[in-house]
Prior knowledge:
Blueprint: H1 9-20, H2 31-43, H3 48-73, H4 80-103
Helix pairs in contact: 1-2, 1-3, 1-4, 2-3, 3-4
Amino acid sequence: MQQSTSQTPDERTWAMFCHLSALAGYMIPFGSVIGPLIIWSIKKNEYPSLDQHGKEALNFQITILILKIISIILWIVFIGFMLFGALVIFNIIMIIIASIKANNGERFSYPLSIRFIS
């Protein structure tokens, strides 16, 4: 993806934090959605590119949350354990990639993300 030269270092840093804040979900219930939501809500008007990064992070984390709930339900048939583990690993990898891209001033679109917020 192309790099945007009009972004300030602060804007790129906040975009990175927007993605990284999803890691709060591993310490706080629903933190993976609450973290990006707070940063996006507060900073989206101040930094134009943060609006896109915030929407991407929120859409992906809501999608992952739904998939984790489905995998927990599937624990009954024992496939859910593997699915849940794969989702955790996939989520962490995608958060890291998105954070690096955001810090470089690039746009990132999460794979498998359902567009709840457009």
